[in-house]
Amino acid sequence: MFSVALNGNLEGYFPGKKGIRQGDPLSPYLFVICMEVLSRLLNKAAQEGNLPYHPNCKKTSLTHLCFADDLLIFTDGSSRAVGELDSILKQFYLVTGLKVNYQKSEIFCCGMPNQVIRELTETYGFKVGTLPVRYLGVPLITGRLTNAALKPLISKITDRINSWSSKYLSFAGRLQLISSVLQGITNFWCSVFILPKRVITAVEAKCSAFLWKGKSIDARGAKVSWSAVCQPKMEGGLGIKPLLSWNNACILRFIWLLFSKAGSIWRKILKLRSLAKYLVKHIVGTGDSIYLWHDFWHPNGPLIEVYGQKIVYDAAIPSQAKLSQVIQGDFWKWPPARSPALLQIQIALCGVLYPNQSTADSVTWLASTSGSFKTGSTWNYLRDKGTKVQWFRLVWFSHSIPRHCFISWLAILNRLSTKARQKRWTPSIDDTCMLCKDASESRDHLFFSCPYSRQLWKQISLLLGVPSTCSWQDVLTWFCRKTKRTALYNTLLKLAWCASIYYIWTERNNRIHRQVFTSPSALVDKIQADVRDRVLGFAKEKTSPLSKEVATNWGLDVLCI
């Protein structure tokens, strides 16, 4: 039964029609109400002397810590204390119906004889836990991260990779698992701890090995370096975030909280203050909460950092002075400029920045356009940026086929294991092209100069209604140009290009490893089928229409004008 408080008075009772489930807006309040009962039972027992305090909790009269239905209870570990605790939990069960789950509950003992611990576990059914305690998947520690504390992270990633290693996964499939699953695991740890470099190196080595080898060990022979893989797609990478810069971006959020939330408890996270120093800028209002010399409020930066300690003596204003000391009303009131530095400071403020007595001081985060902290924007600000590549939209686009895109990406970077590349490391290898048996199998030859590939591209070009060419660079340049065709037609072009690269490479591998040979016409049929199925999966009738000729060529008559 429920009662509603209206204007401070309880009005009636009504029955609940359905049980409260996790996620219901009412659930947190019910948790608080129920746990308040247990909290009062524990505090009352301690005040009456029936539940002895833990030695380190006696001064603060602390008996427990509670967050929703997660509970930590502290006692001195005596048989009397544990017996009283068991009695309180049973009383709580009789009142609320909430019973302790002994399978998920543990006791942690320190400085107690093994015989006493064994008696407690046998009498009350508790399990003995080990430190550090894990909460929400991460260890609760106050000191330096140890190898033991970080072992769950490495083990979890290794276990996930090993569970996938038995499955046949394409490069694109492995990339998707790294991006969605493995980075999801590391993101949680990155948002809580500053990970040691040895752990970052170990995790990235496992991810690299899985991407290229399909297992968690031995990343030797990677086609592309991990640093290149971790570049954004528009800069020629795969868009995987490097752990070091992502970890820094996540932890900088706590420094942002130091300024934006006065009650924040994260005041020991100072290792990244050199990074944050020029990212947190104070917006001048009254100047009461801004340090004149040390905070970043001036257009030139923190004044003591820019001009040195001497500026404090030149101005004859204390080092810890607030900005309000040089403000009068809505105007500046600086002492006479007795040095070029002081004159430069005052000139830089003219016509640019004025105080405002009707507005409180505030802060803005310069790494984000919104002025509030955003991890993604901060990471993008901190990372080492590469040169934007023109071809990234040719490979990475909406409605693409991932396995085709990955092979196309490797082909553009010239990292596919063609025989010409293999010959660099093994000079004795026969580098003759498997498709024509006539020339060295380089990337440019395999995909465009080879008679087999030329015949395939000629048929694909006719189907698309575009000119045919036999130069890798010419084709890449042509596809990267912005066409005036419809969005659907542009997507069709990209799908056909990536599919052609993929199937030429697949045909080459089938001839080497399976002795299976397919004609160019049969390969074109496979390309048509993949592209047609993909387009029909997302395109809608009468939207972004195709010409009748192109639509008929690809079996997309439903989309023609």
UniProtKB/TrEMBL annotation:
SUPFAM superfamilies with a match to the protein in the record: DNA/RNA polymerases
Pfam families attached to this UniProt entry: RVT_1 (PF00078), zf-RVT (PF13966)
Domain of life assignment: Eukaryota
Domain Reverse transcriptase: 1-140
Protein name: Reverse transcriptase domain-containing protein
